[in-house]
Amino acid sequence: MNLRYIYIGSVVVLSYVLFLSWNAEKEIKQEFVEASLIEQNKSGELLPAGETVGFVQIQNEKLDVLVSPSSGKIWQARLKEHTYLNNKESQGVRLFGYDLLSGFKFYLNSGFVSEGEGFEVVGVTPSSVSLVSLDGQISKTISLKEGDYELIIKDGWVGELPADVPTPYIAMYRTDGRALDARDNFFENSSYTGVAFNTPDEPYANTRLRSIDEGVEYFQRGGWVAFIQKYFMAAIITPSDRIQTLIALPPSNGSDTYVMGAISRETKASEIVSGVEHRVFLGPKVRSDLITRAPDLELTIDMGWFWFLAQPLMMLLSMINVLVGNWGVSIILLTFLIKLLLWPVSAKGFSSMAKMRTAGPKLKEIQERYKDDRAKLGTEMMALYKKEGINPAGGCFPLLLQMPVFIAFFFCLRESVELRHESFFFWIQDLSAPDPFFILPVIFAGLMYLTQQLNPQPPGMDPTQAQIMKFMPVMIAAIFIIMPAGLVLYSVANSAISLIQQRAMYKKYGASDFSGPGAT
Asked: Fewer CB within 10 Å: C terminus or N terminus of the chain?
């Protein structure tokens, strides 16, 4: 039986290694194809439907943007500091972009409703492009803020205004499907991907694309609409005094494209002539940065049920990292700090388990003596618990009280773009990717096994259940193989500190050298 389990485990591990190798090779090939298409995109050899000339490139320290000179649409936006692969030669992750083979597209457009004239370029600088419509009526300037993730678009009316004042708008257009340059793994795909709104009634109202059947509309002042994916997002941020309708519309008229944006209402003629300005954020979901850009924009980071704990934990983790300069070390130090703060709760649980461990022989004797009389067995066991000062549930309640903190930290690490492509030491070169050599999962399994040896076996445990518990370290280690290294590092640090604390409490109560159920 043991040999069979070892064989099955070896096959699973080998299969996973082959999968990682295949996935890495696939990503490198995709990167190579992307790089070879960039110049073709700029020259106009490979363009989306409706585009006839090559793109104009504008950029700053953070963003590389491709604009269509004929339509004014923004067809591509790359983040320079966040590369697709974990190497300096890799291209930046794309937020906006398209794939002619799959039909995927995600782009941005703005202007005036019902005005569909083409454009021509009238001015270009490294970080901006100015366009004017072919009929000379509309002007458009697209520029990047220096050293920032914001794109500023200004749409104005050059000619004489018509009787019906034009309605300004800005919108993102996206087909359904996986985000561009997203990694193909369970934790990447499990994070929320979809539309989110900021409204006076709901600071964060979100919905997935496929759930938009009849459209979503919010008539309000200010707010924002964003398309969110793991680590990054594109958000249209509106001024607090602008009246508009925030929308998310499903595909219509045979199209496969969803529309998310803002349509300005009650806009004055003077504003249209001088130019209506739009702000678009294209960047990583860093809480400290998002807080400064717009109210509630930091809510786009999914911190789970216990967000009120996860947010301060992330702030504390960032503060520690400023001091030590290594996110892996910061995770370990914050885990130590959490365990220190929760020590009064943990100590009660460990003391209860220590007393249970020392009472093991007496419990076993009672079980043997009254094995045929369950009523008497229960009475005698409760009497022993009272005499020895043992709370049978004493080891469970402290763990339950700590669970919200552990779950909050789990989400904190899972959604933190700060860990993406950040190394720890030696073989861990990306804390957001699985451990390539499974060393951390194996260490965790060893720590869990040692902890099991310390914990007394509950009286009357079913033999089958006891066998399952023996294999629990192996099963959890197998799950950790696919988890990001940062999360596993936290689990290893948490388990190691708990083991040290538990041994210290057992020594205090004289249970360290006890030879009984669960003894080492």
From this structure: N
Q: Report DSSP state, residue 418.
A: G
User: What is the Cα–Cα distance from 409 to 411, expressed in whole angstroms?
Assistant: 5
473, 445 contact by CB (below 8 A): yes
Rg (CA), the chain: 29
- Going by C-alpha positions, the residue among 339, 364, 327, 345 that lies closest to residue 456 is 364
What is the CB neighbour count within 10 angstroms for residue 239?
15
The b-or-e profile of 23-46 (16+ CB within 10 A means b, else e) is eeeebeeebeebeeebeebbeeee
* Cα 347 to chain centroid, rounded: 33
Cβ atoms 453, 436 nearer than 8 A? no
Q: CB atoms < 10 A from the CB of 230, how many?
A: 22
d(CA 327, CA 56): 38
**pLDDT tens profile 397-443:** 666 767 888 888 888 888 889 998 888 888 898 898 888 888 999 89
pTM, 2 dp: 0.81
Cα torsion through 333, 339, 344, 347, rounded to 10: -130
Terminal-to-terminal C-alpha distance of the chain:
24
Which residue, 228, 258, 226, 225, is CA-closest to 242? 225
Tokens matching residue 111: 């202007």
Alpha-carbon distance of 349 to 263, in angstroms, equals 58
Domain boundaries, the chain: 47-302, 311-508
Structure tokens at 492: 């290893």
pLDDT digits (tens, 9 = 90+) for 116-155: 678 999 999 999 999 999 888 899 999 999 999 999 999 9
Q: 157 and 272 in contact (C-beta within 8 Å)?
A: yes
CA distances from 415 to 313, 318, 330, 513 (A): 13, 14, 16, 43
∠ at Cα 95 (54, 125), nearest 5°? 45
Let me know if 60 is exposed, middle or buried by CB neighbors in 10 A (0-12, 13-18, 19+): buried
Please give the class, per CATH, of domain 47-302.
mainly beta
From 77, 103, 91, 78, select the one nearest 30 (Cα to Cα).
91
Whether the pLDDT of residue 7 is over 60: the answer is no
| CA distance linking residue 379 with residue 373, whole number of Å | 10
How far, CA to CA in Å, does 354 sit from each of 157, 183, 431, 500?
79, 45, 36, 14
To the nearest 10°, the Cα dihedral for 466, 469, 471, 473?
-160
Phi, psi of 139 (to 5 degrees): -115, 150
